[in-house]
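User: My notes are a mess, but here's the protein and pyridoxal-5'-phosphate's SMILES. Can you give me a structure?
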Amino acid sequence: MSRIYLSLSKQSGFEMEYVEKALRSSWITSGGPNVNDFEVELQNYFGKDSLVTALNSGTSAIHLALILLGVKAGDEVICQSLTFSACANPILYQGATPIFVDSENETWNICPDNLEIAIKDRLKKGRKPKAIIAVHLYGMPYKIDEIHAIADRYEIPVIEDSAEALGSSYKGKKCGTFGHFGIFSFNGNKIITTSSGGALVSNSNELKQKAIFYATQSKDNAIHYQHSEIGYNYRMSNICAGIGLGQIKTLEGNITARRNNHSFYKNLFKSIQEVELFETKSEDYFSNYWLTTIVVNSDQAKYSNYNLMKAFEEKDIETRPIWKPMHLQPVFEKYPYYGNKVSEKLFECGLCLPSGSNLTDEDKDRIGNVVKTFFNK
Ligand SMILES: *Cc1c(COP(=O)(O)O)cnc(C)c1O
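Assistant: No problem, the inputs look usable. Here's the predicted complex:
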């Protein structure tokens, strides 16, 4: 029996063709025809108002979004605390200060009440936040209407971290198209992958050209290499974009597969009262269910998320605690935080379950058996 992983990708079979085309044409560099084609595919997916810049990671996309919003040393940027560190690190790359905000219980994402408390308090201190980074965690859209109403009221731009939410939508509109910038990741564990890669979504060609300028070392318009601004090596490579062109053909199928995984878990846990499945609470929300996650709650210590994780590990099944909030991380704990322990509690009791696009019926049987044995069902 082979190990069941948390989030494996699935190939369409066309990846090799595009990569080979790149190799044969000697376009083995950053940028190139596959990169342009991949951007067009993504633009068609998001709709005509979305301009896509393909980059070498989701982290670089967040960094460029901050640069394009003019975030500089000494500025403050509000960031959802319950997220992956890649979301907060670029704030520090700019020498800015992260201001962390707690989650709410419904979507596990940035809490509107605490967001407004944070903004008001920063304003009182004479420090208007330069941007808000909100996350669609595990594919679940954040409270878009509430968050954007607050951001608009205080005129603070939103960076929408959609790294985990390609294919998710809110009221029929795709995640990644609501903010001033949307960012995506095509890392190996995401719903589609380019091995490593990312994308920045904006709504103007001017911003896209500016993003490409910074992503390719900020070369001025001159015959020699001349630079008036700091540049970065952030463009996606033509080889990686070839993988992406093959992968994008799997997107709809992967969303269906991951949503089916979620239905399997919903059924599995329906009679286990210690487990609460994380799911959409209204028809307005459509999650790609990138990862299915649960909260394990019991007065009996033996039924803890960590013991369940151990039971899975004994059967060679990979699970993972949910993200440790940024305000609890040694590297970030000195920065301001506004909240009331929602993300702490989720971190203490949550667990991410195997959710790969390739999960087979046999895998599901193995997972089901661990759960039933563990809870004595
Ligand atoms: C994966 C991820 C990123 C970073 O993407 P990379 O492509 O790995 O740099 C950022 N934010 C979140 C929420 C992620 O899950």
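The longest strand covers residues 51-55.
User: Great, I'll file this with my notes.
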